[in-house]
Amino acid sequence: MENRLLDQFNNVIISQWLSKQIEESYGSLSPRELFEIAYHTSNSVTMRNIFIKQSSSEDQGGSKAVFYSNSKKFIAIEALDSSLTITKYFSEGTTGDKIVLEVQPALKRRKDNFAKKDSEMKTQILKSILVERKLDECANLVLLKGINRRIYFAIGDARESAAVVPIFMEAEGASLVQLALNKWMETAQRLEQEHTFPDNLVPGILKNITQIKKWLLDLVSSFLDK
Do 91 and 124 belong to one domain? Predict the structure, then answer.
């Protein structure tokens, strides 16, 4: 299962493309909390997560994510020991202005809003972003022609993670989301587990994941923006 985009990012993009970077202090948040908020704030339905690594400790840096957009730009989010950075890589003739004009102000605002919330709401928001990441993982596995077993477990993780989050389950449309996830779990389970996901099913699952992701992005943003 070759990840050519990630190879390109590591071997070419980092060293040869133009970039713009923003940096944000953790303030009263833990590195894990700000990383999750930055992940969500950088994400969109046009973004594909091609790499994710979680720090072994919530209170330390080390987490990293890499996105690839349909406009052929890359975004890297990295939780360092003392701050978090988001770097946008772009080719000649394009710009990375959005990271400064839109992402940075939104991240600062959401960091401040998150800090004021009670611990239960913080937990629910972070768990919802976990579901977001699991959906991204599933989509990436499908696009990488991953095996059915891994796709089944990625969908299952998303579904089970969502099931214990009240703000998710009580939101309008949640039952339809769970039905769709369950349908694709059952589909993946019926397939040969060590075979790659069938090409004829790829458009359908990606369409559903994109629809669910848009719904979830809007839901999480609604809680982070108030």
Answer: no
Q: Are residues 112 and 127 in the same domain?
A: no
Indicate the DSSP class of residue 195. S
- Checking if the pLDDT of 171 tops 70, the result is yes
Q: List the domain range (segments joined by +) for residue 219.
A: 120-224
Q: Are 48 and 143 in the same domain?
A: no
Query: In sequence order, what are the residues at sequence separation of 6 or more whose Cβ sits closer than 8 angstroms to the Cβ of residue 185?
Result: 152, 155, 156, 159
Pick the closest to residue 217 from 37, 7, 64, 68 (CA basis): 37
- Chain segment 12-63, per-residue pLDDT in tens: 999 999 999 999 999 999 999 999 999 999 999 999 999 999 998 888 899 9
**pLDDT at 67 exceeding the cut of 70:** yes
Model confidence pLDDT, tens digit, residues 73-117: 999 999 999 999 999 999 988 888 999 999 999 999 999 999 999
**Residue 10 per-residue DSSP state:** I
* Residue for token pair 């990383």: 35
184 half-sphere exposure, CB direction, 13 A CA radius: 32
In angstroms, the CA 32 to CA 23 distance is: 15
